[in-house]
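Support case: iron/sulfur cluster complex. Customer-provided input:
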Amino acid sequence: MVCKKCSETPVIKLPNSNISLCKSCFVRYFEKKVLKTVRNYNLVEDNDYIGVAVSGGKDSTTLLYLLHKITKNRKDIKLTAIAIDEGIEGYRDISLANLKKFCDRYKIILKVFSYKDAFGKPLDEILKINKDVVPCSICGVFRRYLLNKHSKDFGFTKLATGHNLDDESQTILMNFFRRNIKASARLGPITGVINDSRFIRRIKPLYFLTEKEVTTYSYIKGFIDKYMECPHDSDSYRAQVRDMINDFEAKYPGTKHSVISSFLEFLPLIRKNIEYKDNIKSCSICGEPSSKEVCQACKYFESITK
Ligand code: SF4
Ligand code: ZN
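Agent response - structure generated as follows:
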C-alpha cells in the first residue's frame, strides 16, 4: 500500500475512509483540517486573547502548537497557556515538566494553578482522606472551576481546549446515557453565544480529528518524548463509554463520525430549547456560575475540609 497522494510509504490509514497517507501528506491534511474548523466556526477572531488549556498530553500540546502557529504573526491576537496541577504524583508532575520545556521552546507564556493552592490539598491527598470520592468527578469539577475562574481573571476572550472527535463523541453519549441533555447544549466546536461575563466561550479546533489522528500528528512532530496516562483514567465512566464506542468503531467504521454529525444536526435545536443561561445562578459562596444555590466545587471543597 502507498500514500494516496504521493506514493510514499504511508504512516496512517485515515479513520472513516479508505485513504492511507505518508508523513508529510498526513501533516498537511491534519493542519488543513484544523484550519478549516477554525475558519468555518470563527474560532479565532480579531483582537482575541485566547487561553489555551494545556496538560502536557498529546491533544493539548498539539492544540497549543497549532494555535501558536496560526496566531504568531497576528499582532492583535494574544495567546497564553494555562495548566492545572491536580497533584497526582508520577503523572502530572512529569507532564507539567515536559510542558514547561515545550512552552520555553516556543516562547509561549504558561501559567500553572494547583489544587494545593486553591483547595489546600493535592488530589492524591484528597483521595487518601476521602475514600468514597470518585477521582474523576471531583477532579473534573475542580479543574473546570479553576479554568473558568482564572480565564476571567486573565480577561481571555476564549478558552481553547484539546477535545478531539473521540472525546466529543464520548461526551455526547455520556450525556444521553445520564439524561443530561442540558449539558450537551454546551458542546460543539464553539460554545453558544451567551451575553454573560461569567462565561468564557470554549473553542475546540481539534473537534473533527480523531484520537488516532492527533496521536499520529503529535508523534510525527515529536513535541514531547513520552506522554503519560493518569492512573485514575481507567476507573472512569468515560473510560467505559470510550471502550464501548471503540468496540463499535472497530466493527462499524465511521461510527464516531456519525455520532458527531448527527449531534451537530441536533445542536441548534437543543440550544434553542434549552435556555440554560436562565437556570444559571451565581454560587452563594464563591460567585461562580452554578445551577444550584451552592456550586459543586464549593460542595466538594466543604466535604474535603470537614
Ligand atoms: Fe483527573 Fe480523572 Fe483526568 Fe485523572 S483521569 S486527571 S483523575 S479527571
Ligand atoms: Zn461556589
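The chain has one domain: 45-273.

Case will auto-close in a few days if no follow-up is received.
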